[in-house]
Design a protein that fits this description.
Chain lengths: 259, 406
Amino acid sequence: MAELLVWPALLAYGEAAVAYAGNARHPGSLGRLATWGVRVGWLAQTALLAGQAARGEGFPWGTWAGSLNLFVWLVVGAYLIWGCSPRYRMLGLAVMPLAAALLGISYVAGGMNAEPGTSWHDVLLVVHVSFVLSAFAGFTVAAGLAALELWQARLLKHHRATILQLRLPSLVALDRLTVKTIAVSLAALTLGLVPGFARLPEHGVDLLIVATVGMWLLYVGILALRVRAGRRVLAASLSLAGFGLVIVLQLGLLLTHVA
Amino acid sequence: MNLLLVGTSHRRAPVEVRERVALDADRAAELGAQLAAETGGEAVLLSTCNRTEIYLSAPEAASADRRATELLEELAGTKLEPYLYRLEDEAAAVHLFRVAAGLDSLVPGEGEILGQVRTAYERGTVGPLLDRVFNLALHTGKKVRTDTSIAESPGTTSSAAAALAAQVFGDLDGSRIAIVGAGKIGTRAARRLIKRGATLSFVANRTDARGRALAGELGGETIPLERVTDALASCDIVVSSTSSPELVLTKDDVAGVLGARKGRPLLLIDLAVPRDLDPAINEFGDCFLYDIDDLQAVVEETTRGREAEFAKAEAIAVAEGEKFSAWLSTRDAAPVIASLRQRAEEIRRSELAKASGRLAGLSEGERSAVESLTTQIVNKLLHEPIVRLKEAAAEEQRGPESRVEG
């Protein structure tokens, strides 16, 4: 029965995505409608995940589709931290269609099932998946922020007269938030990699592990570029590239299966 | 009478009158408390450079009105009648909501007034009614800023420059400005930026005396025009308006300082004709250069959008006014409803007491069921009359024209 909660979650995320699109054209009450869509959808998905955790006899997100479900929840959760404030509504336009689409894919691929997963006692796997997925979610939100920052910089560069009416967060605020989000996500990825390495003797090295380490290096590089070298635009552009890597790794999970 | 407003503003009174009734926050709070004590009600005084308004709720409307008028006239030292307006209930509430939203300001949508309304409310002598109406006003002010872009509608090139700076840096606290050329238009733009929290770093002007006077007034230092390039690294916003026929800053000048800025954006506002700043500076990723035409385009665009945003904001204020009115009417009917409920409960209890002999054989559970049943019957019987009472009160509230004068 708990898997039925995917419908309100999907509907609410979809509604939020459509309302954010409408709000971009005509700012106003549609923005609030979108915000409520995000909140309701996230609560429904939280209940869905809680139901999965209660029913499954093990960690139910060890499958690719299950981990995608958890990933979407983390992305929307990270967005909810500040994204519902009016100035960040445009960020919702980047995040919510993606969240709705990925949740739909997860559902079709069986991510809501409560099949017996990997045992909860496999602490290394649970910690590894939780931290790595949290990091991926953070990187996704950071990419949304970076996209918004680059878009706004472009509008400013081209002297678009409508820029003030878009009511975007300031360029400096977006830059600061992107860097902070990447820093926190990188810490989570580091914590997630440690148990992953501990499992190496058992599972061996594969392309997915190499790509994850590559991602870690990329984000360390982004932080160094931004904080030490002051390359704001390059760092924001690389954050978008990093999101591409997140997607590649998610697809990689599909092929190699986490568990 | 529920809510009364007596006041004067820039719409009615010239500055010579407004300055006589203007009060600082302490004095406004003190007079509010005095007025509340004298009228036996609630009072809030809202005093800004554009208005002095007294919001009252008192049992005796006429005497409260008279006392508020006397108070304003005592402050002014003269009769104020032609400059005063009076509003009641919903009209007074809508007026306050428009004020909080910045719709009644000289520059529509300005944000300072919301803070002033909050201060007046926090320091006022408030009871249930003024508490409600001021909370709704603060909510309306925030809602208008959230749901419309009226606050982002600069009407002049200098305010457009300030709005763009806020778009780049957000809160301008800590942002440093460089003024290149102490011309009128540049100075005006710099003043706007300083008003939003920026601080002046330096003034560079060909005439030293004028530059020094401006730097003294705005709190910065003066440097010779030739040293502008060296000083750029410490600035976030450059406002240039010299009468120089040649470029004051070239792309190469700016290239040299970007490394030290660590990716922090640099906003350059060129208000001069012919232009002071090399347009090629805009090619740097971290530099945003706006000339006078770019700013003018921003002003024109926002002016076009302002009318629609203004209408949207007005609709929000009116809708909140209706909510207040509905609350007011329910509040009026509340004592009648309470007494109706009390009477019905007395009858229920007395009838149960009369029947207590016949109910003596009932168990505890059965007795509780009878209690519950009779309570439900009373509630169901009362439901319809109570709804009708509330509707009638709302109807009465809407009926007469609230605005009596002004």
